[in-house]
Amino acid sequence: MTKLFTNTILILAFLVSGCSLQQKKQVLTHNNDKKGLHSEVEYPNSFTYTGNPLSRIHGAADPDVKVWDGKVWVYCSQDRTVYPDVHEHHYNAMDGYHVFSSEDMVNWTDHGEVFHSRDVDWGWEKGGFMWAPGAARKNGMYYLYFPHKDKDGKWRVGVATGKTPIGPFKDSGKPIEGLDNIDPMVFIDDDGEAYLYNNPGIVAKLKPNMIELAEEPRTIEYGPENVKNSKILSFNEGAYMHKKDGLYYFSYTNWKNKDTQGFYATGKSPYGPFEWQGSMGPNPKGAQDHHSIIEFKDQWYYFYHIAYSEYPAYKESQGRIACFDKLFYNNDGTIQMVKHTLSK
Fold first, then answer.
1. Catalytic amino acids?
2. How many distinct structural domains can be found in the chain?
3. CA separation for the pair 219, 203 (Å, rounded)
4. What is the pTM of this model?
5. Cβ-based neighbours of 51, under 8 Å, separated by 6 or more
6. SS3 15
7. What is the CATH number of the domain that holds 64?
């Protein structure tokens, strides 16, 4: 009886401890610009959106956006200030992911950092190199896909799992076999099949466990040869897939184009082939388009990021910050050019 009582007490203590860890507020110190601006922020941090950009206190780039249970979830990478003894470029110093959520696109919560390079045992020993993420949900589990350099300095794609949209996320222990490069994005079709898109413009179906490929990656045929051979029209990065009215929209970014950077093609299958339709996203000066497209409460939205330098409050600072604007379709299913907006 005494042993049973003791075990019960230990179990209760463990559960209470676990709850405390989940509810404990996270405090992060940010150092994101050339002037060495430091700010200590307590998370979760609630704020009201009054116009672009979405985040105004730290870098929040490469938005991968999902709608789950009537709420918008935005997964972002975070630019960092360069530390010469560790990284030579601020892109390399990117070390973790933040998550934002909203039920109305006005009142937002920044849930803080949900995953970090220190959580990846197989990763680059100096940390960093956590570029654009992708998120997915299936059978009650949440999956965070991340490009990361391994100990040999090669780009791989890892996957971490969690029981809530904000984690805690636990790395699977190894990168996905048969996949390298950057910019993973996962699309789950109406029949529950999951497809992983990645650079350099490839797609592969995932196994039901969501952490292994079910097949060899296929090259996506997204346009005619004159498009694929064009320096300013071809696929560069940031593959994205969404579906509307039974039509599949494959989209991507070409950051070499000085006028428009977001392009798309349409098809009848998540594999393609696709019919190239042209541009839909303007050039966000100082940054790459790297977009996500969602429908929320009967309105479509286009998420992207801009450079800090485009927002007066952060002039001369480095980094990129997430934004979003409304997206509209023509009657024939083609997409109208997105209009970027920026608050003062």
1. 62, 237
2. 1
3. 7
4. 0.90
5. 341, 342, 343
6. helix
7. 2.115.10.20
